[in-house]
Amino acid sequence: MNGFLSVFCGLHRIYIKGNTNIFKTITIKLSILLMMFMCFVSVTSVNAASNEVAVRLDGTNLQFDVPPQVINNRVMIPMRVIFEALNATVKWDDATLSITALSKNGDVVKLSIGNEYIYKNDRKVTIDSPPVSINGRTLVPVRVIAESLGRAVSYRSDSRTVIIEPVDTLKEDNLIEDTSIDTSINTSINTSINTTTPVPTEEAAYEKMIALKEQYPEGMAWTNGNVYAWNGGIYSRGYGCVGFAFILSDAAFGNLPARKHTDFNNIQVGDIVRINNDTHSVIILSIDDTNITLAEGNYNSSIHWGRMFTLEHIKAVGDYIITRYPE
After folding, report:
1. What sign does the dihedral 259-242-212-290 (CA atoms) show?
2. Domain 54-166 - what CATH class?
3. Start-end of CATH 3.30.457.10 domains in the chain
4. Low-confidence ranges of the chain (pLDDT < 70)
5. Mind listing the pLDDT tens digit for each residue in 96-114?
């Protein structure tokens, strides 16, 4: 039986004469192909959306004309957006393909496309993801930039979101100089301190610190309202992140005296590192060839075990080290 198949070509309708059964078969096949195409487009769109990385600064998502990219497991974002969002003045040098940013508190950050070094106040630090140029935009590693300018950075894998927040707001009196130690401050702290501990190995220091994880579990509320007097000297007591670092330090080192230094090539397990423009303290739990594992208090107003920095990154954001190992 013959019939006509009606199709559109542009704005014109065309009638094709032929066998009706053949037309039905063609119509069914075309419908299936159309549905398959629509499903493919839909799945592709969903996958593209699921691979996008968001960057949230102080609760607000940043907007980009070039989307963030994941390169070498590092989130890279347009440099001008992140610098200006953090209230830094940024300059681009076409001749050297370099970026210079000046923060409101006077810190200077310099980096350039393809260069595996970043300069913070003229201190040279190696980074594992140098700036790149994509679609005419310079992308920079978000964590390195944000933390160099005094912010805390975390990543939520469930939503693929980089979170940039202020670190805990420490003031000068969060580190109290060692003039008069008030041991009564320790009344709210229940930890056993061995005041005759010899210099421990790094393995022994780790075991002493990690043994406190049950007493101070992950996520336990910890703010600047928590205070602790320690045995290391230099400072008599600390609040918030400092207080928690002092607790772990005393557990590992007893009454061994503390000293400050800035040799980040000689960092050890149990050292306390002051980071992010002298606004936050962390203590070193472990060190391997490329990474450092931390413990910290008052990180998002709680205790946190296990945040990791690369060795080069701790050099970029570190201000000084408090150690209780002898020289």
Report:
1. negative
2. alpha beta
3. 54-166
4. 1-51, 167-197
5. 999 999 888 788 889 999 8
